[in-house]
Amino acid sequence: MPGENVLPYDARALRQRISEDRAELFLGFTPWQQDAQGWNLSIREKLASPPGKSIRRTVWDSQDNRNARVLIDIIECSSAADAIEALLEELAANQLARLVEAAPHLGVASFVHPEGVPPAVFFVRGNICIRVISFARSAVAVIPWAERLNERLNNEPRVEQNRLVLESNRKSVATGEEAPIFYTLPWMLGGDGFLKFLGSGGILVAREGRLFFKASKRGEAQIRGYALEPGREPHAGVLNLIIE
Amino acid sequence: MKIEEVHFNHDTSSASADALSIRKNAAGGPIVAPEWKDGQIPQPAAYASAAIGNQVSIKARFSGGPLNGSREIRAIDACLPPAVPSGCLGWLLSLIAQILRALFGNILGDAQQRVVAFNGAGNSGLETFVLINHKLKTSSVGIHSTTWKWQVKHGRKWLDFGSTQHKIYLILDLPNGPWDQSSAANNTQLPWTDALDKACLWALGAKTKDEAAAKITLAMNGQPNQTYTPVTMFGFTPPYQLTSYMNQIDSGLPFSLNCTDCADAVTTFANLLGCDLWEGRFFNMVTRRFLPLNGNPALDTDWVSWTWGYHEISWLNSIGQYQDIYDGCLHVDMDDNYSDTVHIPRNPIKMRFGMNAPDDYRFRLIQSGAGSLENIPRRRAVG
User: Fold this and answer.
1) Is residue A4 scored above 80 in pLDDT?
2) Is the link from the previous residue into B81 a cis peptide, with omega within 30 of 0?
3) How many CB atoms lie within 10 A of CB A230?
4) pLDDT per residue over A12-30, tens digit each?
5) Is B244 an interface residue toward A (CB < 8 Å)?
6) For residues B158 and B379, what is the distance between their CA atoms, to the nearest angstrom?
7) Do B310 and A5 make contact, defined as CB atoms within 8 angstroms?
8) Gap between the Cα atoms of B304 and A154, Å rounded
9) Which of B229, B260, B374 sits opposite A5 (nearest CB)?
10) For residue B21, what is the DSSP state?
11) Alpha-carbon gap, residue A15 to A80, rounded angstroms
12) Within chain B, which residues score under 50 in pLDDT?
């Protein structure tokens, strides 16, 4: 009888946690030095990835202990639904028979290694699945790292300047339809810069370098965008659409 | 007269009479002939021993020849063995030199003399030279160096007119998946020289595929900066992040990986040399105590047991209950008393998966649980 990997996780319930009329989407998010104070960045890699995904890897080394390292992978997907699938892939690619569901404040879904096992945490925020892993012989508590990243993703900064321009070629969009969203900044973001989009009335999808809003509920939709980068004032932009 | 170019992979559709199609890594482009061009950094070439036919050739181009004339040209090994010095020490030094030459020296032999015609500007066409005295079918896995002296015949004398140096990888057979020889544009699955540098060093001197797979498994398992974690670090869903894995090894810094990563490494490096391994999983088990990566076999506390949803290993030829396997992730304990502190570590190298026989891998790894096989053979594309 051939074997089958039956995972002890309720995939359907995890998928149902994705909101259909509120969305957050991140492009280019990466850990900053401020997320890892006292640690040295030793590796920054863009890993080869299948279409629709990009994986940015950073490895942080303790300044005091050669055997203490933390690996952070940011798996950027097209949508929140795809990020849940990426999380399920992570769980399937873990040798442990079962991971423990983590504290609910870490994104829409999060899992950790049980006690006594090299620490690791996996969680989903918007369209990104993040894994933070104790990467060498000394066990490093990874939850605080995940919390710092999550807090920065949560952050909706006060913005003085709206220089992030959000536009669409549609004034209105029907339920179930997609409207392209064009965003422009007057400068190029640096290696640590990222864009954060929040949407209401539908979901946000990034596809082939373009951003789309998929309407789900009649009424008004709003898309807010933020350009965030260390050492630079945040900039924002807003776009309103009618959902028919 | 001057040597302008030397071509090793002059027929990209075959590797029976010339070199393989290779590339530097995923990011770098394919290495295309001429691998040696005057004034440029020479590029390496690779040969697959079992694929080599009756005749191997290179191609070369020359300039500065006689206008509308012809000359006999050849290339010979510039590093001829010195005379054996007298005495025991001399004999010993000569033996060491012979071993070093066998492992790292010229395996291309010489380029057989032939008449080369030159045009009115003194340039030749791209001329084919048959390799004679080569050891491409008899040598073992390795990274070899050839220095050729190019000579032209004047009367009855051969006069040197140039010298070329070449880095040559020798592998056992055509690489198996994920590697291929397809000439498709920007094929990232052509054998990488970055990976050949590792695989040929790890399996240095291997003459058979079994020997190569064993050496690769041992070397992979023995990398000193690795520790075990249950998380797949280098890609369960393809691609296998080979670039990232090699960066970690080369960094010398400690890092963690799991069984899937080990199976990927063993399979990918062994198959690069022509072995025929597959990655494959089995499910649901509580293990006996085993020695994880870089554990100390003499320390009882280093022998550990895990409860696993799956374990992934490398399988020889195919996945099956009685197939042979390679596991670079751990040592099993061959001591029959599992409750004492005596352990006999064994690298699972060409060990039968089996069931409950004392020499079966399954018996030595699994204490309880189904350990049922997933019949999905994998060779993850590299990235």
Assistant:
1) no
2) no
3) 11
4) 999 999 999 999 999 999 9
5) yes
6) 51
7) yes
8) 40
9) B374
10) P
11) 9
12) none
pLDDT at position B26: 96
Instruction: Give the model's pLDDT for residue B339.
Output: 86
- Per the CB < 8 A criterion, the answer to whether A78 and B289 are in contact is no
The predicted pLDDT at position B79 comes to 85
Amino acid in position B128: T
The SS3 assignment for A106 reads: coil
CB-CB under 8 Å, A43 with B259: no
The pLDDT of residue A2: 61
Q: Say yes or no to pLDDT of A1 above 70.
A: no
- Is residue A125 helix, strand or coil? strand
Q: Which amino acid is at A217?
A: K
Whether residue B292 lies within 8 A of chain A, CB to CB, comes out as no
Min CA distance, A53 vs chain B (Å)? 12
Enumerate the residues of chain B whose CB falls inside 8 A of the CB of residue A90. 231
Across the range A190-219, mean pLDDT stands at: 95
SS3 per-residue string spanning B139-189: CCCEEEEEEEEEEEEECCEEEEEEEEEEEEEEECCCCCCCCCCCCCCCCCC
Kindly list the residues from chain B whose CB atom is less than 8 angstroms away from the CB atom of residue A94: 230-232, 309
Residue in A67, A90, A133 nearest the CB of B229: A133
Burial of B326 (0-12, 13-18, 19+ CB in 10 A): buried
Residue B142: predicted pLDDT: 97
Averaged pLDDT of chain A:
94
Rg for chain A (alpha carbons), in Å?
19
Q: Report how far residue A151's alpha carbon sits from residue B230's, in angstroms, rounded to the nearest whole number.
A: 27
Question: Model pTM greater than 0.80?
Answer: yes
Query: Within 10 Å of residue A221's Cβ, how many Cβ atoms?
Result: 23
Interface of A with B in 120-179 (CB under 8 A): 120, 131, 133-137
Cα separation, B350 vs B78, whole angstroms: 41
**Is B27 an 8 Å CB contact of chain A?**
no
* Total Cβ atoms within 10 A of residue B299: 11
Closest CA to B236 of B329, B312, B330, B309: B312
Give per-residue pLDDT as tens, A152-191.
999 888 888 788 999 999 999 999 999 999 999 888 899 9
Cβ pair B256:A133 closer than 8 A: yes
CB contact under 8 A, B237 and A120: no
ipTM over 0.90: yes
Percent of chain A with pLDDT over 70: 98
Averaged pLDDT of chain B: 96
Token look-up 């994705």 returns A18
Q: Which residues of B touch A133 (CB under 8 A)?
A: 229, 231, 233, 256
Residues in chain A with CB shorter than 8 Å from the CB of B374 are 2-5
The pLDDT value recorded for residue A207 is: 94
The shortest C-alpha distance from B244 to chain A (Å) reads 7
* Partner-chain contact A135 B260, CB within 8 Å: no
